[in-house]
Design goal:
The complex is a heterotrimer of chains A (843), B (255) and C (323).
Chain A: E1 7-13, H1 17-28, E2 34-37, E3 55-56, H2 63-78, E4 82-84, E5 87-91, H3 94-110, E6 115-117, H4 119-125, E7 136-140, E8 144-146, H5 148-163, E9 166-168, E10 173-180, E11 186-193, E12 196-205, H6 211-217, E13 225-235, H7 238-241, E14 251-254, E15 259-264, E16 267-272, E17 297-298, H8 306-315, E18 323-334, E19 341-344, E20 351-355, H9 362-375, H10 398-408, H11 434-439, E21 442-447, E22 450-456, H12 461-465, H13 474-477, H14 483-493, E23 495-499, E24 504-509, H15 513-520, E25 532-538, E26 544-554, E27 557-562, H16 567-577, E28 585-588, E29 593-599, H17 603-608, E30 625-632, E31 635-642, E32 651-657, H18 661-671, E33 677-679, H19 682-693, H20 708-711, H21 726-734, E34 740-747, E35 767-768, E36 785-791, E37 796-804, E38 813-818, E39 821-829
Parallel strand pairs in A: 1-2, 1-12, 2-9, 5-14, 12-20, 23-33
Antiparallel strand pairs in A: 3-8, 4-8, 5-7, 6-7, 10-11, 11-12, 13-16, 13-18, 14-15, 15-16, 17-18, 19-20, 21-22, 23-29, 24-27, 24-28, 25-26, 26-27, 29-32, 30-31, 31-32, 34-37, 34-39, 35-38, 36-37, 38-39
Chain B: E1 2-7, E2 9-12, E3 32-35, H1 37-53, E4 56-63, H2 68-76, E5 81-86, H3 94-112, E6 117-121, H4 132-139, E7 144-154, E8 157-164, E9 167-174, E10 177-181, H5 193-199, E11 204-206, E12 216-222, E13 232-236, H6 241-251
Parallel strand pairs in B: 1-4, 1-6, 4-5, 5-11, 6-10, 7-10
Antiparallel strand pairs in B: 2-3, 7-8, 8-9
Chain C: E1 2-7, E2 9-10, E3 13-14, H1 16-32, E4 35-41, H2 49-54, E5 59-63, H3 73-87, E6 91-95, H4 98-111, E7 115-123, E8 128-134, E9 139-145, E10 150-154, E11 171-175, H5 181-184, E12 188-193, E13 205-209, H6 220-229, E14 232-235, H7 237-241, E15 262-266, H8 272-278, E16 284-288, H9 294-298, E17 301-304, H10 307-322
Parallel strand pairs in C: 1-4, 1-6, 4-5, 5-11, 6-10, 7-10, 13-14, 13-15, 15-16, 16-17
Antiparallel strand pairs in C: 2-3, 7-8, 8-9
Helix pairs in contact in C: 3-4, 6-10
Classes of the chains: A alpha+beta (843), B alpha/beta (255), C alpha/beta (323).
């Protein structure tokens, strides 16, 4: 045992699967002076890793979780600490069978072997299952069981052997200290432990269920809550013991009872995600000394498990006679949105989070964080959904975390619709028109903390006017309304008013503001005052960090307007790269500025009633921002008109002071009353309108794995000024034509095998060749649907997907899989399928 | 064969036990509860005897309402009848406990007939008073032996074994008798899943019993001053063998 | 006014626990300003008289009766109770051994007085205050004792047995109790020397193997060492999970709890699940390649190294010394 150091380059706190793999990956990337500490003993420090059931189902609808799961499974395999035992998700209901078909689709998207089995076929693989209570099963032969503790030991040993990593078990962190760094940036400085204090450049918190408590020591937050998952080990069971193996039968997930049955040598581990949500504050978790078992193996509360027990016996009768030999309320981490917390904390520079990661994604997520720390961005895959900076303040409170965890626990094995909305913690952030929209019977969708109307019940008459119908299958109809099609058609015919208050708006000001803005953006920000640009922000590796609009508001003032989903990540990005010499100041003015989108052929006529100013392309040209006063019921309201469109019809984003919002809404609605104006929801703005125009969306089409050339957003020239990712971007341009190109495809026949018309949701449905083969580009990236939606004005269901360059020929016939059925699709365009030359927008 | 087992609900702590701020009780905030281990073995022994002689096992506890959990656990491993003497305090002193149990047992016997055997744990895991079973036996005027790690029943006599160094003492106790059971007499079974589910439906009869407090009064609980034990590293690799054998000799295990 | 201290002997040799009780009682009686008197039950105690006096027994009550030739909890309890009554003793104590606590519980039941077991410290007065152990020593309890006759036991090892500065007089008083048929019910009838094979739960030596043993065959070396020490082999849950050993060999939460004089834990990381089953061992020697392993931290002794080299070396060393 070595002497406790007083200096390190990086201190990793937590020696579970994540922290142990992290030091291994840091060592591989060349880091030295690594110290790993854990308050518990090794190899099982007492966190969630120690009681994990350690199986990996590689199929997930979510791309990050699926690919990092697969990545992790492969790392376990490489260490030979993994057995492919196979796994079956069984269905007891027709609704679940449909979900299994959806999983077949996701399996195909990620190239994972999977089969739908009849009850008899399930019984062939699992002879002790009661095939009379199931309707079928989803079988994945590459489901694996891993040895997570031994993996941790192996990775630590690698870090020790190759990089001199120092490991200290039984060492409790008492404080994480910070200093005011350059420009007053709070920066991590020292880790105080009961064995001594270490000065360090970097600190990574990989403390699982304790992570938020550790982060709080430094004044940061890692929004997660320790949550109980019950597990009982029952046995002995002869048929299992006879395998003479840790695992000889496939893992069974009894999805409709939210249970799993996983052989562990001669006994069966029965785990449940079906009980009530049982949450604990980190301070309630006992220490290693206080705990009867380990700290995260809390006392079993049998009453919560009884229902699952009955269902388990129903599925496998032999379990009834098996003894309950070990049963725990095991703790794991839940976050407000179900995704991990990876990356640098927003509050403290060089304090990183590698938390809310389960064993199944551990090694992959550790690699992500190690790459992120090394290269400034992860390389293995895009992880914007796991980026800890995605959270707004309103998502970091215990109230929010607990509410979400209470609601989401049952979704662990649930059937979750891609558009599914939360029930609790709503109306956290609302626009100034909220009460008006409630009066108009708006259906609100929540984007992070912000409420946005998706459609308006008051527009129900449009359904009849345009002869619209509900979709025939409930799943396709769920969280959807034909009203949204009506709003779309009305906007194309007349005009629509869209609430864009959830836009996140920032301003950079100071002598260095424009230069700094140019450093962030691919396109030139140093344009004439009053002009605005749309631009990608790239990662150092030249992929997308974001896309947004930047406005030159003054000589030394630049406004940044970005979408609500990425506001947190973008604000953090700005703060991270901002000069520390005081030449630029940052302000978040989201709450001071409201935005209304007014689009449609009648938009100029509507707005013209509120001003005498020239609103033609002469007075308000496409892409320009002009200041204006609008007569709002006699009150003159100062506003800016930004002539741009995300829906394909002419009009403006109208910016005004937040407090003037209600007056502006009323004035525009009243002016448009005879011109067919309708409040119009996000179903048009974010989906049907943009899809017809082929507009890309950050987080869907745009992510760090793709560059602007592939996304079709490269300009003919590259600006002279330096910007983040420029070198990589230039290199990509040098290589010529991109490997893959973003395209819009049309679904040529939406009829499924039951003769019903179906509507793909944009949930990573795979694009396949006419022969049914997967399409994968030379980088190994699979072609899958990034966005989907019906295009009312073109009468086709539209899909967006990256395709290898050679397939990007309009008219090429391909297929898409949806719910395990195949549908013919045709490559339509790399841009718009509606009004391709933008005549409507620029007239 | 009618057998009664008296059990106590106790916390299941780790290696460090915390005390409530007022010092009157164990801080059970993080803790689950269990049946005192000796008593868990007593229940198992009773169930085995009942299985052998077609008997009936009644389990009796004096404790808070939550002791229902321990009674049902006993039912899940084969006990037939469950009786709770509810108390509102954390604990009763040994005299008071014994007095209440005596009253309750007399009541049960008056209603349902006498018990052939009454089993206690040798001592409770928590307070360790070493006396309740003996007091009850004395009050009921029945023979009692503690420390029992083996029982054979023949013709109204319980042949009870008690572990001593290198062997057993054997007692021939006429029934009805009281025995204090020690862990190791058997390996208690775990409940089966079906047993657990069935125990949910078991009936628990609860009857309050009054008893006078005894002369022993708790003032406070506290943790002893901790002795930090360092690991003595005897050496590295096979070269450490002589040091290991020296240790074995010193401990007297190398006969 | 006297304190009676029950002392136990084997053919005249007082056990350490009794001398501890006498040492403690002598001091307690001094503080309470009463006399300290010893009680010895059964024949053959003559040889112990000097030692009792040396440890402060001002009087020694020798109790004899046909029913007292061997131990019997009720006979002993009844005898001590009658002695308390006949001497007018105000306090009675013993060491908190299985026998000591058992007999005192009988005495207390008969006197209808409280009994405070396993004290570490006692302050006499109108109401006595004392500290006693709970939870097998993990917690201490301060308590008060309000009684006509105080019945207390002192925790084993709470004090070291030491002779008094001046030997006491140690005058002998014979006592014959009046024992009825009831006292005969629970007298030892037979003693059985253990001849059957030792079990995991009772073995004085357990050699345990964990995942680090690596295979079913790897346990042969552990069997050899256990054989040399007259012990048995145990294993961790990982081992039974791998099918290397039967479940009956498993030490731990879901296996057997052991309490040997020494537990040699080879290649066992010391998962808590396992630790719970092994923690009652009086001594633990961990053999592990990882010096940070939990088992190493918790063990009193450790050897850092590959068990497949260390274990055979120990077996050989034992054989060498035995010649």
């Amino acid at each position: 045992m070595s002497e406790f150091p007083n200096r390190a380059n990086v201190v990793v706190i937590g020696a579970g699967i994540v922290g142990s793999c992290l030091v291994g990956h840091l060592a591989r990337l060349g880091w030295t002076d690594i110290v790993l500490v854990d308050k518990g003993p090794l190899p099982n420090p007492g966190g969630s890793t120690g009681h994990a059931s350690n199986f990996i189902f590689p199929v997930d609808h979510n791309k990050e979780m699926a690919l990092l799961g697969e990545q992790s499974a492969n790392q376990f395999r490489d260490m030979e600490l993994s057995v492919d035992c196979g796994g079956i998700e069984v269905a007891r209901s027709e609704e679940r069978m449909e979900e299994l078909r959806r999983r077949m689709t996701s399996a195909r998207a990620w190239g994972i072997e999977a089969h739908l089995l009849s009850p008899a076929e399930v019984k062939e693989l699992v002879p002790f299952i009661n095939d009379e209570v199931i309707l079928g099963g989803f079988y994945c032969p590459t489901v694996s069981v891993v040895d997570s503790l031994e993996t941790g030991t192996t990775m630590r040993r690698e870090a020790i052997d190759t990089a001199g990593c120092q490991v200290f078990a039984n060492t409790e962190v008492l404080d994480i200290e910070t200093v005011e760094g350059d420009g007053g940036v709070t920066t991590v400085s020292r880790v105080v432990t009961d064995k001594g204090t270490i000065s360090t450049e970097y600190v990574v918190i990989a403390c699982g269920v304790w992570s938020n408590r550790l982060a709080n020591m430094a004044g940061a937050t890692i929004p997660l809550v320790p949550t109980v998952h019950q597990m009982a080990d029952v046995g002995p069971i002869d048929i299992l013991a006879e395998t003479n193996n840790e695992i000889g039968y496939p893992v069974v997930r009894d999805m409709d009872s939210f249970c799993y049955e996983r052989q562990s040598a001669g006994s069966m581990e029965v785990g449940s995600y079906g009980h009530r949500a049982i949450l604990h504050h980190p301070d309630e978790i006992p220490s290693n000394e206080e705990a009867a078992l380990s700290p995260t193996e809390m006392p079993f509360t049998p009453d919560d498990f009884d229902e699952q027990m009955e269902q388990a016996i129903e599925l496998m009768d032999m379990l009834g006679e098996a003894e309950i030999r070990y049963a725990i309320n095991g703790l794991l981490s839940l976050t407000p949105d179900g995704m991990p917390c990876l990356g640098e904390t927003t509050e403290v520079r060089n304090l990183w989070s590698a938390a809310a990661v389960w064993v199944k994604e551990g090694p992959g997520m550790a690699q992500v964080v190690a790459e992120w720390m090394t290269y400034g961005y992860p390389r293995v895959i895009d992880v914007h959904g796991a980026d800890i900076s995605r959270f707004y303040d309103g998502e970091r409170s215990d109230e929010h975390i607990w509410s979400r965890a209470n609601e989401s626990f049952i979704k662990t094995y649930g059937i979750v619709h891609p558009q599914e909305q939360w029930g609790g913690r709503r109306n956290i952030d609302v626009g100034p028109y909220f009460s008006r929209q409630q009066d108009l019977d708006a259906m609100f969708f929540q984007a992070r903390t912000w409420e946005r109307p998706q459609w308006f019940g008051s527009n129900a008459d449009l359904v009849e006017r345009y002869g619209l119908e509900e979709r025939p299958v409930e799943w396709d109809n769920r969280w959807w309304s034909p009203i949204t099609v009506g709003e779309h058609l009305n906007l194309r015919e007349n005009c629509g008013l869209v609430d864009l208050s959830a836009f996140q708006v920032y301003e950079l000001e100071g002598p260095g503001a424009v230069a700094f803005a140019d450093k962030l953006a691919v396109n030139k920000v140093d344009v004439a005052v009053g002009r605005s640009i749309y631009t990608p922000w790239l990662t150092p590796d030249g992929g997308f960090h974001s896309d947004l609009t930047m406005m030159r508001m003054g000589e030394d003032r630049v406004r940044i307007v970005t979408g609500v989903f990425d506001g947190g990540r973008d604000e953090f990005w700005v703060r991270k790269y901002m000069p520390t010499d005081g030449s630029v100041t940052f302000r978040n003015i989201t709450r001071q500025v409201t935005t209304l989108g007014l689009w449609g052929p009648n938009a100029p006529a509507v707005l013209g009633q509120l001003t005498d100013q020239d609103l033609s392309q002469n007075g308000s040209s496409y892409g320009s921002i002009i200041p204006i006063q609008l007569d709002c019921g006699g009150k003159m309201v100062d506003a800016s008109l930004f002539r741009i469109s995300y829906v394909g019809d002419t009009g403006w984003e109208v910016y005004a002071d937040w407090d003037n919002g209600p007056a502006l809404w009323d004035a525009v609605m009243s002016a448009g009353a005879d011109l067919g104006i309708r409040p119009t929801g996000g179903g048009v703005y974010g989906s049907s309108g943009r899809l017809e125009k082929g507009y890309r969306l950050m987080g869907a089409e745009l992510e760090s794995e793709y560059n602007p050339l592939e996304a079709g957003l490269a300009r003919p020239k590259v600006k002279a000024a330096d910007f983040i990712g420029k070198e990589a971007y230039l290199a990509a341009r040098e290589k010529g034509e991109p490997e893959a190109v973003m395209t819009v495809l049309t679904v040529e026949d939406q009829t499924d095998s039951h003769g019903r018309r179906r509507f793909m949701q944009g949930g990573n449905e795979p694009i396949l060749t006419p022969d049914g083969n997967r399409i994968v580009d030379s980088h190994g990236r699979a072609s899958r649907v990034t966005s989907a939606g019906f295009g009312p004005s073109v009468g086709k269901h539209l899909l967006m997907a990256y395709l290898p360059r050679e397939l990007v020929v309009p008219g090429t016939d391909l297929q898409v899989m949806y719910m395990n059925d195949l549908y013919p699709v045709t490559v339509a365009s790399t841009g718009a399928v509606f009004d391709a030359d933008d005549t409507r927008m620029k007239s | 064969m009618r057998i009664l087992v008296c059990v106590k609900r106790v916390p299941a702590p780790g290696s460090r036990i915390n005390v409530t701020p007022d010092g009157h009780a164990v801080d059970t905030a993080h803790l689950g509860f269990t049946t005192s281990p000796h008593e868990e073995c007593a229940v198992e022994e009773a169930v085995q005897i009942a299985e052998q002689y077609d008997g009936e096992v009644t389990v009796l506890t004096l404790g808070p309402a939550e002791s229902d959990e321990q009674l049902r656990y006993a039912a899940s491993v084969g006990a037939h009848k469950l009786v709770l003497i509810p108390i509102t305090e954390v604990d009763w002193d040994p005299q008071r406990t014994a007095s209440a149990l005596t009253t309750a047992i007399a009541d049960i016997e008056a209603a349902d007939g006498p018990f052939d055997l009454i089993l206690f744990g040798n001592e409770s895991a928590d307070t360790g008073g070493f006396q309740v079973g003996i007091r009850v036996a004395h009050a009921l005027e029945r023979p009692v032996v503690n420390g029992i790690k083996g029982i054979d029943l023949t013709h109204g006599t319980a042949s009870a074994r008690r572990e001593i160094d290198g062997g057993f003492e054997v007692y021939e106790v006429p029934m009805p008798a009281v025995l204090g059971i020690k862990e190791g007499i058997n390996l208690p079974r775990y409940p089966t899943m079906k047993g657990r589910l069935a125990s949910k439906k078991a009936e628990v009869s609860a009857t309050a019993v009054e008893a006078l407090t005894g002369g022993q009064t708790r003032v406070r609980l506290h943790r002893p001053v901790e002795q930090v034990s360092e690991t003595l590293i005897l050496g590295t690799g096979p070269e450490a063998a002589p040091a290991v054998v020296d240790l074995l000799e010193e401990l007297g295990v190398l006969s | 006014m006297s304190l009676l201290v029950l002392c136990d002997h084997d053919r005249g040799t007082l056990d350490e626990a009794s001398l501890e009780a006498l040492t403690f009682g002598r001091d307690l009686a001094g503080k309470a300003e009463i006399t300290c008197e010893a009680v010895v039950i059964g024949a053959g105690a003559d040889a112990a008289l000097d030692s009792l006096a040396a440890h402060g027994a001002e009087q020694v009550h020798l109790a004899g009766h046909d029913l007292l030739t061997d131990y019997g909890p009720e006979a002993w309890g009844e005898t001590l109770t009658q002695l308390v009554r006949s001497t007018g003793a105000t306090a009675v104590m013993a060491c908190g051994t299985d026998r000591g606590n058992e007999v005192l519980a009988h005495v207390a039941a008969r006197l209808d007085e409280p009994f405070v077991a396993n004290c570490t410290d006692i302050t006499p007065g109108d109401v006595w205050t004392m500290t006693r152990v709970q939870w097998g020593g993990s917690l201490l309890e301060d308590t008060t004792l309000d009684a006509g006759i105080r019945v207390v036991s002192v925790t084993h090892h709470a004090v070291e047995a030491t002779p008094a500065d001046r030997p006491a007089e140690g005058s002998v008083v014979l006592f014959t109790p009046d024992l009825g048929a009831e006292a005969a019910r629970t007298v030892v009838r037979d003693r059985v020397v253990l001849t059957q094979g030792i079990t995991l739960a009772t073995s004085p030596v357990v050699v345990g193997g964990g995942r680090g043993v690596g295979s079913e065959d790897g346990f042969a070396q552990l069997e050899d060492l256990a054989g040399a020490l007259g012990g048995v082999v145990g294993c961790s849950r990982a081992v039974t999970n791998n099918g290397w050993r039967p479940h009956s060999d498993q030490v731990g939460q879901t296996g057997t709890r052991i309490a040997p004089d020494i537990y040699i834990a080879a290649g066992i990381s010391g998962a808590i699940q396992h630790w719970v089953g092994a923690m009652a061992a009086k001594n633990i020697l961990a053999v592990n390649t990882d010096g940070e392993a939990n088992m190493v931290a918790k063990a009193g002794y450790a050897v850092i190294g590959d068990l497949h080299k260390v274990i055979p070396a120990i077996t050989e060393e034992i054989a060498r010394r035995r010649g």
